[in-house]
Here is the input.
Amino acid sequence: MNDTTAKHDAAAPRGVGLLHNSALTKSTAFTAEERERYGLRGLLPAAVGSMETQLDRVLKNMRRKQTDIEKYIFLSALQDRNERLFYRLVIDNVSEIMPLIYTPTVGEACRKFANIFRTEKGFYVTAEDRGRIRELLDNWPHRDVRIIVITDGERILGLGDLGASGMGIPIGKLSLYCACAGIHPSQCLPVMFDVGTDNEEMRADPAYLGVQHARIRGEEYFELMDEFIRAAKDAYPGVLIQFEDFNTSNAFALLEKYQDNTFCFNDDIQGTAGVALAGVHASTRISGVDFADLRFAFLGAGSAAAGIGMMIAESLTEHGLSEEEANRRLWFFNRGGLVERSRENLPAYLAPFAHDLPPQSDFTAALEQHRPQVLIGATGMPATFGKDIIQLMARLSPRPTIFALSNPTARAECTAQQAYEWSGGKAIFASGSPFDPVELNGAVFHPGQGNNSYIFPGVGLGMIACRATSIPDSVFVQAARALAECISEEDLARGSLYPPQEKIREVSLAIATAVAEHAWEHGLASAPRPRDIAGAIRDMMYDPRY
Here is the structure.
């Protein structure tokens, strides 16, 4: 990972083969000497450019595109054509380009995945591959894979079951690993666990790229995943496996099954929880309410909300509360109403948060009874925080914290404008997707984006650096603390609970250092501990240049 440029040796391609090699090409930036040496004379225009002139050209060309999905397609093509130029562009323009290669644009890209498909990216597993997955992994061209991001496409953002079209998520996540944390592109493997889709409209589309049957479930599903996990660990010893966008029941089942015996984590459960916890800690610096005194209300009780709740409860116990008291501070509300003990068929992950209270189907009444200072939305449903809810939160707390975390932007529980206007400027607001600054009564609010990209790249980098053997929840608590420490008073004064995205590589390094140190201190790491942890990790980070 410490090479900043791709290497070229005698066995490497020459001529057109070199120009078309995305990892090695420099295109018009090949010098006159290199053109002679590698058989490029006559294959390029006469002028010798530089990465800087190329960056200027592609940025202008991208900005000429009329829609975000056109920009996504343009950037994807650039990545296929010139890998280093693509990542340099992302790193140098991260706040402009991250929303184009990930949330919110990746949601539209997944919906249209079959129709915008251009080149093959990633690895596909189907039930027909049973018994051969390890053999088929040898078809992947890179042997030093450090991170796998895998999805089965059943719960893509807030969009539901997109089947094989969900492959846009692992591709996007791994692009962020490279840009935000400096993991080398050749060490990243996106995987689609294609076990079918129950989205009949998608299956009926002739352009759909996945298998043409309903989802495989139950024992057959888990046996196939077992085979993939074994194959991946054998093919790539020490590989980190990140589960992404599985439905809630499978997400918790897979994490429970593999967390203690496989180097893995679930970003929707643990990554989302870490970034939310960091934002909550930051909000107390604005509200003045001590973290140990906070009460929380959740609208939505899926994997993201439950993961946030578990991590907040763990952090509350570290602040001196008993486990029982910590759980009492968190109220969950979903389609079935308040999570309380008379509810039937309550999943195990929600059981600790089921309270000895009468059934309650009125969310407003539950808020008035519980009087939370923090409201967290993870519903996947837009406009679920109406004006009445925001105004009530403003009555219950002088500075209410409102997290509208559902992605993409169109699925947010409320907009930044609504949160600020309806609360009279009192709200401390964060969202899962980006919102523009809001001007209200002469003040300008810059809402922070509580996106997992603040957490998972740094966690992955730190865990790889120390060669961790497992990733317990405590790693994400440490990551949340490290992220919270990166939030400056200037950020808070602007109304943001997160650092500017332009600092995301610095944030990732700080998180990687903190979680690696935690791993060494708690016997989770197998690599020798360096004297300068931050320096050693910094030296590992991929820096794309010619």
Observations:
- The mean pLDDT is 95.
- The two ends are 15 Å apart (CA to CA).
